[in-house]
Amino acid sequence: MTTLPHRFLHALDRFNAAHPWDHNAHYHRWIMRQLPRSFGTALDVGSGTGDLARLMATRAAAVDAIDSDPATVARAQAMTPPDAPVTFTTADALTGIPAASYDVITCVAALHHLPFNDALAHFRRHLAPGGTLVVVGLWHAQTPGDHLLSAAALPLNAATGWIKNKGRTALPPASMTAPVRPATMGFAEIDRETRHVLPGARLRRRLFWRYTLVWHQH
């Protein structure tokens, strides 16, 4: 009996590998609902293969998209129409932000790659008055509530992969080929540190091991 959970998790891992889906792209529509109908400039930090940057370009005058991995940036450039108002750059999020300020800054599944407080403070400095910062980040299960939500997400994760792939086995989408790193901060710590740097920020723990953060510059 003691081997059952271990065997179950291995079987679940094999199933998920055969039916992959992009957990970050799942939140793109939600991100767009947090943004104005139109805006001037946007910055997408940790842009990966550029799905969110291209989506924001349908509303923005110009989008700067930065990622630290040159191969991923090259792939994003190849996937983007030449007339899209998006510029992809290989850059460090703490030293290589292209412009002084932006109306919108987004950061999806990248904040845990950076020094948390320093990155949030840096984004705050680069956000124009009235601007919006939206983060979709990863949390690490630490509390009983965390573990309960993680357990609830397991069957939903498998079901979502099955539905999105129409029951067929599939290769991971291009957006899932960028380098990854596991999260180390629990949600309680994320919440505490965020409120220290960004008073008034709206945080919410989400399914699929994600949290969301929205903050408006005054």
TrEMBL record:
Gene3D superfamilies: Vaccinia Virus protein VP39. Residues 43-135 form the Methyltransferase type domain. GO terms for biological process: methylation. GO terms for molecular function: S-adenosylmethionine-dependent methyltransferase activity. InterPro entries: Methyltransf_11, SAM-dependent_MTases_sf. Keywords: Methyltransferase, S-adenosyl-L-methionine, Transferase. The keyword S-adenosyl-L-methionine applies. The keyword Amino-acid biosynthesis does not apply. SUPFAM superfamilies: S-adenosyl-L-methionine-dependent methyltransferases. Pfam families: Methyltransf_11. This is Putative SAM-dependent methyltransferase. It comes from Streptomyces ambofaciens (strain ATCC 23877 / 3486 / DSM 40053 / JCM 4204 / NBRC 12836 / NRRL B-2516).
